[in-house]
Amino acid sequence: MEEYSHPLIESSNSHSNDNQRRVYKRRWIILTIVSLINICNAAVWISMAPVADKAAHFYETDQNNIDLFSSIFFVSTIVIGFIAIWIVDRNGLMLGDLY
C-alpha cells in the first residue's frame, strides 16, 4: 500500500526524532502588532461613550444615532474580516498583508 505524502499531512514515521515545536520570533512580533492595532480600534470605540451626548447636541441628532455610529466598528470588523479571509485564501498571505 502506497503512503500518501503531503507537506501538511505527514506520517508519524517521517519525523520520529523531531518532537519539538519551532518558535519563530517573527510570529510573536506580528501577534504583538495585530494585538496593538485591535487595542487601538477598541480605544477609539470606547472613547465615543463619554462624549455621545455632546456629539448628539453638536450634530443636532439623536443620541441613538451616535450610538449606532459607534457600533459600525463591530459590523465593519465582520465584513472586512470575511473580505480579508477571501483575499488571503485566493492570493496568499503575502498579498493579503498588503490589503
UniProtKB/TrEMBL annotation:
Gene3D superfamilies: MFS general substrate transporter like domains. It is found in: Membrane. SUPFAM superfamilies: MFS general substrate transporter. One of its GO terms (cellular component) is membrane. Keywords: Membrane, Transmembrane, Transmembrane helix. The chain crosses the membrane at residues 28-48, 68-88. Its main location: membrane. Residues 1-20 are annotated as: Disordered. It is a multi-pass membrane protein. PANTHER family: MAJOR FACILITATOR SUPERFAMILY PROTEIN-RELATED (PTHR10924), SOLUTE CARRIER FAMILY 49 MEMBER A3 (PTHR10924:SF6). This is Major facilitator superfamily (MFS) profile domain-containing protein. It comes from Oppiella nova.
